[in-house]
Amino acid sequence: MRIKNITYSLVHLKYAALFFLMVFALINPARAAIITFDDIPYIPVDPEWPQFSDVVVTDQYLSQGLLIQGAYLGRRYPVEDNLANPQFLSGWNFMRMTFVGDRLPNYVTMTVSSVFDYANIINFYGPDGHLFKMITSGSTGIEPNKPYRADQPISFTSTTGISEITFEGYYGSRWGTLVDNLKFKPSSRTTVPEPGLLLLFCLGIGVLVLSRCRRCD
Fold first, then answer.
1. What is the pLDDT at residue 18?
2. What is the domain partition of the chain in residue ranges?
3. CATH architecture of the region 33-186
């Protein structure tokens, strides 16, 4: 009888472990999205004379909750010297990133550069409007000799969520911001989807575990 009880206990532990693992998978926040722009095929219109506007970047990352406006795919030259990370996002004089879906990111990180060593103006917006304005390193009208830093790390956090980011090149030049290594993660404060079939299955497993335990008692 004791061996039988031990066997029942092990079975219950197995079901209980499965139940808690499934529940954890449901409530655990989504993983951060990491975008390096290296997965987009770079196919110029004319291979002999590639142009900066050959590959438009818009909805390629819609499945990850990101829409982009006013941007193109940039490529470092020579490519052989930058095999690990040869591509980046090249903005026009105005570029916008819009986060879509039920779960807005609560933090965003990226690296930012500029073509002519100019500063970039970055504005962050949330569901309730403007959150913060940031000016990167580089030349500005007020500080023309301000030191420029390529691949400057930029990060921003908002507990209410980030819905949009806009980028402008200083002096309103046609060359805007260069962005790479974009990373963002859905906020835990946003709306959680209604329970689906997996949650119902987990509840069923839980009921089964409880009924088995009562029988053993």
1. 45
2. 9-28+194-216, 33-186
3. Sandwich (2.60)
